[in-house]
Amino acid sequence: MTLEQLRIFVTVAELLNMRAAAETLHLSQPAVSAAIAALEERHATRLFDRVGRGLELNEAGRAFLPAARNVLSRAAEAVQILDDLSGLLRGELRIAASQTVATYWLPAFLTRFATHYPAIRLKCSVSNTMQAAAAVMEREADLGFVEGQVDKAFLLHKQPVASDDFNLYAASGHPLVGHSLTRQDLVDAQWVLREEGSGTREHLAHCLKSLFQLDLADLDIRLVLPSNEAVLEGVASGGLISAMSDLAAASRVRAGLVVPLGCNLEKRRFHLLRHRERPLSRAAQAFVAML
Questions:
Q1: How far apart are CA 37 and CA 43, in angstroms?
Q2: Does residue 16 carry a pLDDT above 80?
Q3: In this model, does residue 85 exceed pLDDT 60?
Q4: What does pTM read for this prediction?
Q5: The domain 166-266 belongs to what CATH superfamily?
Q6: How does residue 72 score in pLDDT terms, banded at 50, 70 and 90?
Q7: Which residues form the HTH lysR-type domain (predicted)?
Q8: Is 160 helix (H, G, I), strand (E, B) or coil?
Q9: In the chain, what are the domain boundaries?
Q10: Bigger pLDDT: 74 or 204?
């Protein structure tokens, strides 16, 4: 069993598609298929079930996946140690960030770091808050940046790095525009929200509870969408309202497509996440120093 075989297995297990895995790994599809076949044959254990043209992890594959990820993570840490010995002349920095942070706050710091340290490979994955936290927890990312709360079960150190204004938004012609919002207005309104696990949805839930004694279950949620851009498009299209970062909504506000409802929701903080049991690499330390 080689690290390359493990890397291929993990990628195929995540994508459940040989062709997509080959493209991700910049390998040929026959090479990917051969690596999986060799791994299964060497240990006389099938890891995938072939269902039509698709793949599914079987019980053995599901049991093996966490261990394979752990081996790859430990190997990456060994490489990191050698990279650190060379200073910042080579290496890799992996960052996981939630959508609002990654789109509207983080790019300036990524650009500055890439300019100062051109020999460091910089990788940034974008997801929601819970997925970004999980990436740091599982050692798939060196640093995380999120706008939502993080499950206390995660062994993560959390450090505030910025704040974000937050508001309710509607299309310019919506009947709630220009009115002082009441609890009943929010109950009667029709909503479009981000998906569960997003910091935007979580902060709305917090604000509703603290300011209006409402739960998300009290709202008429007509639509759930997986990105800020999609939610704002939904708001701009007509009768739905939503809660959103002022940073995310700014361009559509300037264009007159959406307007804030002036609800004075609580600010939220952006946080840096790092693993409590894993020391920061020199590259990660240099990035944090730029914040």
A1: 10
A2: yes
A3: no
A4: 0.69
A5: Periplasmic binding protein-like II (3.40.190.10)
A6: confident
A7: 1-58
A8: strand
A9: 1-72, 86-163+269-291, 166-266
A10: 204
